[in-house]
Amino acid sequence: MYAKVKSLTNVGLKVYEVIVEVDISVGLPSFTIVGLPDTSVQEAKERVRAAIKNSGFDFPARRITVNLAPGELKKEGTIFDLPIAIGILAASGELNPEIVNNYYFAGELSLEGDLRKIKGGLSLSLFLKNSDLSFIIPEKNLYECSLSKETKLIPFKNLREIISFLRGEIKKEVISNLDIKFNEEQFDVDFSDVKGHSFLKRAMEISASGKHHIIMVGSPGSGKTMLAKRMLTIMPKLSFEEAVEITEIYSIAGILKDDEEIAALRPFRSPHHTISYAGLVGGGTNPKPGEISLAHKGVLFLDELPEFRRDVLEVLRQPIEDGFVTISRVKMSLVYPSDFLLISAMNPCPCGYFGDSEKNCTCSVYEIKKYRSKISGPLWDRFDIKLKVPRISESELFGQNEGESSKVIRERVKRAWEIQSDRYRDENIKFNGKLTPMLIKKYIPLSNEAENTLRNALKSLNLTVRSFHKIIKIARTIADLEGVEKVNTSHLLEAISYQRYSLTDEI
Fold first, then answer.
1. CATH number given to 2-166
2. pLDDT at 260 (0 to 100)
3. Bridge partners, 65 (sequence order)
């Protein structure tokens, strides 16, 4: 007796069709799974056996062989529990194999026969968007999978209910266009909470407007982390397409909450400095997304930057430039998106008070140089905006004047995003921070006066070519915030002020 069941599996963000073949023959009772299954797939034997029995059906006391085709593709996870159970029931005569072939199946089974949520459900659903066949899924994956739109979904609570449906004993509605609503954005913080730091607030606004990576250097308690945590409050709301991208990554990583229909907020990821290479970039036998991908379309905040391992930090250089990360293995190469805004903060020295206006530094010049040398020149050069953050004065701290609210700043940032989106509509970029030298030449022509300003800056500040281009990109963002078409000298002078700080300053 033979049956086959259609299923799917994730390998990163890629989806592959898997055919679950089941053969039941005469012989000593056994249950074998082949087709490069990992440990979790092998353990499906016990879950499937118990689920079938506890759902009120007989488990065949014969020789059972399950093949997961294609055989050269590594299979992992609990996603094959349901298709294996359906295949056994079809091969044993409990279900009609021809009817089973009209559906795709994916789901984890409990010992009682209940269906549990699976990882990567949205990717599977997107893969079947144009399919004529329906996709049978756990009920807890419904909202996530329905983001694909037009995919024919049939959600179930348990195995018994699926069997009744396939036998024609009950009817279930096919869901193809469920109404998904965004949860309202709610922030507990606001830019108006921050006293003083008008220059730093301006830099944060420019950073958000043009997607310019920013690093802040200052003493403990100067306000670096406080401002970084407020960056999301001035970034425009997610579009539906962005939300789907983020939700897909969260689903693959298995961090999508049961009560979360869609990722409604831009991510803010702040990993601890003890994070490993794989934790930041992604990894594993079947590589999962790392922090840089979980921060896609949002903010990656690295506090106490020199405390991170240098080799871990160096892997940021390529994703910062390209907006994606490639993870290579012997049999596969996976690409995860990593279009994030990088915000970093660090102390000026090991004790934290070098150059502080109130506390004396206890570090030697050697210790300061060694501490700062943990940040390589190429990585430092990736930051568009480099700022020294001073301690705020007593008058600013106790002053009654409140700064602009996040809502007001967000409107300006939103207008700047719209200007850039319109300008680069024929390009594969959306923000000034992603401009290449060729696109800079195309979209940011400079007057003779502006060119002379840049020449003088190059000579006096000893800037690299990358820094030269960053100044032009920042100036373009400043002009966009003002709604001005051409970049002028004042925009360039302000942009230069965000590139002046160096790791060797004051030592």
1. 3.30.230.10
2. 62
3. 23, 32
Cα angle 484, 487, 491; round to 5: 95
Strand, helix or coil at 16? Answer: strand
* Alpha carbons 164 and 158: distance in angstroms, whole number: 10
DSSP designation for 116 = E
The residue behind tokens 């915000």 is: 343
Q: How many CB atoms lie within 10 A of CB 477?
A: 29
Q: Distance between terminal CA atoms of the chain?
A: 80
**Residue listed under structure tokens 């488990």:** 59
pLDDT of amino acid 81: 97
Question: Does 2-166 match 191-428 in CATH topology?
Answer: no
- Eight-class DSSP state of 173: P
Q: Quick one: pLDDT at residue 399? A: 65
SS3 441: helix
Distance CA 109, CA 308 (A): 41
Residue 408 has pLDDT above 70, yes or no: yes
CATH superfamily of 191-428: P-loop containing nucleotide triphosphate hydrolases (3.40.50.300)
Angle, CA of 439, 442 and 445, to the nearest 5° = 120
The span from the CA of 109 to the CA of 51, in Å, is 7
Nearest to 210 by CA among 495, 500, 503: 495
What DSSP element (H or E) covers 316? none
